[in-house]
Design brief:
By secondary structure, this protein is α/β, with parallel strands linked by helices. It folds into two domains: 1-244, Rossmann fold (3-Layer(aba) Sandwich); 330-428, GMP Synthetase, Chain A, domain 3 (2-Layer Sandwich). The protein is built from twelve helices and 21 strands. The strands form five sheets. Strands 4-3-5-6-7-8-9-14-13 form a nine-stranded mixed β-sheet. The chain has a four-stranded antiparallel β-sheet with strand order 10-11-12-15. Strands 20-19-18-21 form a four-stranded mixed β-sheet. A hairpin with a 4-residue loop joins strand 7 (229-236) and strand 8 (241-247). Helix 6 packs across helix 7, helix 9 (181-193) packs parallel to helix 10 (216-226) and helix 10 crosses helix 11 (339-347). The longest helix is centred in the first third of the chain and has 19 residues, at 12-30. It is globular and about 75 Å long. The protein starts with a helix and ends with a strand. Monomer. It catalyses: 2-phenylacetate + ATP + CoA = phenylacetyl-CoA + AMP + diphosphate. Pfam families: AMP-binding, AMP-binding_C_2.
Length: 432
């Protein structure tokens, strides 16, 4: 059940003491970077006096823009010859954020992922098919190293080539897979088109889903399609990648590995701490990374604290699934809407297929919103009143969830564009 029982079930007071000790070392390490050295000098911050969360809050949050401004070596805290790998992600400006890793960093990260995988039941005798992209994207290699640390047989198939994915799933009787949720839904349709039954002809027991926000309803649909357990994970390249937080077997929130990270959840406008149960932006600080220590990183991801003890016995605090991102939110007729709200409604309707698209446009100086939804093929049998009732029901449910009334368009399966990577759910043409 536990990969590292002593750490995973550590008394809260001991865990706080461990965080304090590691925070002191992290801040001193960060002071070796040109970025934090300049920041500390400017604000007259003495790194050696930062040891608690209260002390840490004297340091301004670090943003993605700060990481870009420090390109390429502004956040490097070790000599370059000690670095064995870098990962990066590019943004709209084209300037990438770069995270460096020493061999010890890679080992620490791999161990966190192994801890996460072991906690949901991955064992040495499993066959692990990794359907995530490899390379600069951290998801593929991060899970790969963690699974190998457990001793699992890893198939590094990477993303894409769905027919090949299905061939490997069937012939090697893969038991564990790492997959984007929207692709899991798409792949189930392709498995069916190959004349296979994803719950009968495959041997999947555990599906690790992440890389994009998704609703509980999406998770439940994936579990029904594959007759396997789907576990939610959280990570981001600035914090290594996967392994920041992970569900346990009880699937009631993600345990944040607090021996490796300090998490704050704050109001994104005021940066004031949020109480348990209140949605806010996550701010993370690394505690076990040598090459690129980052203090108070604004993730833009939205979640809330869960303060009840977990039946699994782990003492590390839990967070909700990611509810969206501050930069994913769109405003329609003055209402703040997150795509995951619409995902929740659609995936709760059994008539809805695996794909949908939210389109925002501006006509005659007025914003319009339509949701194109693929529905099951058996519904297109000429029963127009039935289709109209479905359309009206979905429209009413979206209105109840979001307080706005979009135009609902029901389309046949295969009508909307698909991707083997992260799904594009929103097309905003208002600014084009």
């Amino acid at each position: 059940m536990y990969w590292e029982k002593e750490i995973e079930t550590m008394d809260r007071e001991q865990l706080t003491q461990l965080q304090s000790k590691r925070l002191q070392a992290t801040v001193l390490q960060a002071a070796k970077t040109s970025y934090y050295k300049k920041l500390f000098d400017k604000l007259h911050i003495q790194p050696e006096k930062i040891s608690t969360l209260k002390d840490l809050q004297n340091i301004p949050p670090t943003t993605k823009e700060d990481l870009r401004s420090g390109f390429p070596y502004g956040f490097l805290a070790t000599p370059l010859e000690q670095v064995v790998r870098l990962h990066s992600s590019s943004g709209t400006t084209g300037v990438p954020t770069v995270i460096y890793h020493t061999a010890a960093d890679i080992d620490s990260w791999s161990n966190l992922v192994a801890r996460s995988l072991y906690g949901v039941g991955v064992r040495k005798n499993d066959i692990f098919q990794n359907m995530m992209s490899y390379g600069l994207f951290t998801g593929g290699l991060g899970m790969h190293y963690g699974a190998e640390k457990i001793g699992t047989l890893v198939i590094p198939i990477a993303a894409g080539n769905s027919k090949r994915q299905i061939w490997f799933l069937k012939n090697f009787q893969t038991t564990v897979t790492h997959i984007i949720p929207s692709y899991a839904l798409l792949l189930s349709n392709l498995i069916k088109s190959e004349g296979l039954d994803s719950s009968q002809d495959l041997n999947l027991k555990i599906m690790l889903i992440g890389a994009e926000p998704h609703s509980e309803e999406t998770r439940q649909r994936i579990e029904e399609l594959y007759q396997s357990k789907a576990f939610n994970s959280y990570g981001l390249s600035e914090m290594n990648g996967p392994g920041v937080a992970f569900e346990c077997a009880y699937q009631n929130g993600l345990h944040v590995w607090e021996d490796a990270y300090i998490l704050e959840i704050v109001n994104p406008k005021t940066l004031e701490p949020c109480p348990a149960g209140e949605l806010g932006e996550m701010i993370l600080t690394t505690l076990s990374r040598q090459a690129t220590p980052i203090l108070r990183y604004r993730t833009k991801d939205l979640a809330y604290w869960i303060d009840e003890p977990c039946p699994c016995g782990r003492t590390h605090y839990r967070i909700s699934r990611i509810q969206g991102r501050t930069d994913d939110m769109f405003i329609y007729h003055g209402v703040n809407i997150f795509p995951i709200q619409i995902d929740k409604v659609l995936m709760n309707n059994p008539e809805v297929g695996s794909n949908y698209l939210i389109i925002l446009e501006r006509k005659d100086l007025r914003d319009t919103m339509k949701v194109e939804i693929e529905i099951k093929p058996e519904l297109f049998i000429g029963d127009l009143p039935k289709l109209e009732r479905l359309r009206e029901r979905i429209q009413a449910e979206i209105r109840s969830e979001t307080l706005v009334t979009p135009e609902i368009i029901l389309v046949e399966p295969g009508t909307l564009p698909t991707t083997e990577g992260k799904a594009v759910r929103v097309v905003d043409k208002r600014q084009l």
